Amino acid sequence: MAASSATAAESDAMEAAALVGDAVRGCVDFKGRRVLRFKSGCWRSASFIIGVEMAERFAYYGISSNLVSYLTGPLGQSTAAAAANVNAWAGTASISPLLGAFVADSFLGRYWTIIVASLLYILGLGSLSVSAALNPSDSSSPPLIHVIFFFFALYLVAFAVGGHKPCLQAFGADQFDDENGKELQSKSSFFNWWNFCLCISVVLGLLVLTYIQDNLSWELGFGIPCIVMCFALFVFLLGIVTYRFQVKSDDGRNPFVRITRVFVLAMKNQHAVAPVDMAAVEEEGAHFRFLDKASLEHSGEEVCSMSDVEDAKSILKLLPICLACLPFAIVYSQSTTLFTKQGATMDRHITSDFQIPAAALQAFTPGSIILFVPFYEHVLNPIARAISHKPIGISLLQRIGTGLVLGIVCMVVAGFTARRRLEISLEHGLLDLPAETVPMSIWWLAPQYLVMGVADVLTFVGLQEFFYDQVPGELKSMGLALSFGVAGVGGFLSSFLVSVVDRATSGHDRDSWLSDNLNRAHLDYFYWLLAGLNALSVVLYIYFAKSYDYSKRITV
Predict the structure, then answer these.
(1) DSSP assignment of 314-352, as one string?
(2) Which residues make Cβ contacts (< 8 Å) with residue 338, sequence separation at least 6?
(3) What is the DSSP letter of 76?
(4) Which helix (H) or strand (E) holds 25?
(5) Rounded to 10 degrees, what is the CA torsion of 163, 164, 165, 166?
(6) pLDDT in tens, 460-510
(7) What is the pLDDT of residues 189-209, one digit of tens each?
(8) pTM of the model
(9) Which ranges of 428-554 does DSSP label H, i.e. alpha helix?
(10) What are residue 239's phi and psi, to 5 degrees?
């Protein structure tokens, strides 16, 4: 009897030890309990999260891709005003992840931030549908209250994006354990499948929703994304029993607060005399020595550790790269505004009875991403490894720079296409007939969309990976948010530049480059202006990239 009891106790002890060995360190379940590897995380959790991201991108691009058509149509705005409003909204949607990352890291955590953002998304999309129903499509001057309600709903969506972008992908990556070799390999595959599925949902949104908006109704075109997001939230909640939640660090310090304190204390101590031993700083920190004064005592206030100072320096070093990439972000903004408006004036017939929406051509951008990523991984990178004799092939900074150059190519091609369109409109006597279709196939715009897609993969995806790699460990969300912010600031700059060019090139006896009558406008001049600005940015980027001091001692 005693032997039997001993055997049972030993069996229980071995089982408990096995369970402890299978526990994922640093993670808990939704009830705060230790999670076991075979019951949580990995693809069983990531599939729920990828599904939510597909729904969110379907909704976002279904709205953004054809927004300029709604503004110039039912809302009756001019081309320049509509382009400026779309750029400002897109810029807000790209900058709002900074706010979302702050809220997630400081207060709610990623999981609850995603839920709150989803609810805001549903409210915003539903309000857009109601706004479209209240405003008839044949109305040329809608009531001001309808316009205010529309933009309130639109910016509600923009702020909802801020909760999704920095949190959802990071929460998906949290489901894989870096300390387990098999899961680490799966984590790399997760990022590949993430982008692949994202592009599929973008293409579906561009093709399906833009057709519904142009040919059926705007309220349905805005309402379908609302329904999709409701279903996505249900799916996300369904996976809660499988999710792994990262345990916060013991010190509980907010990374945003501690980095901000470095800059504040450095400003307070700017006139203080540094001790002699402070000259012995790391080589990588020598670029921003003024921040070292944050570690000096000031009026009895708690000083910053040198670790905090070095983290602040790693953030500051990224700013020149950000600034050099802003002109490319301006170029990228044209793909959802002026490219679409230009395509709406061209021959969009596939058959005699069917024509595609102008915004649907934007599907070439994610389509080229789907095709280029495997080509980059399996062809270009192996060639780069053979030439450079480095395991990574092309470095991240080289990848980003190549994308910037392709941005110039895109604008040059777009300029020649716009010039050819003007010549055809002149040949057919359509200069003063802006409502007439120019007998030029919309497929002429396909090359600039394709080039933009490849440039997007190289530049924006490269920036995300570069920022994620270079920021400190607990600031990864901030790094991703900063990379999204480049596109956001570019959207605002594009809005500003469009307004300036429209005013500077218009007059009593001449049409603006961005005139509502595109047959008298000069989009070609505007595109070539952007090509010139991007050429200057490439020169600056090369200078900054050559002098950049990597935070990690690896060749990236």
Answers:
(1) HHHTTHHHHHHHHHHHHHHHGGGTHHHHHHTTEE-BSSS
(2) 83, 514, 523, 526
(3) -
(4) strand 23-28
(5) 60
(6) 878 877 887 787 766 777 777 788 778 878 878 888 898 899 888 887 777
(7) 676 677 778 888 888 887 888
(8) 0.74
(9) 446-456, 462-470, 476-504, 523-547
(10) -90, 10
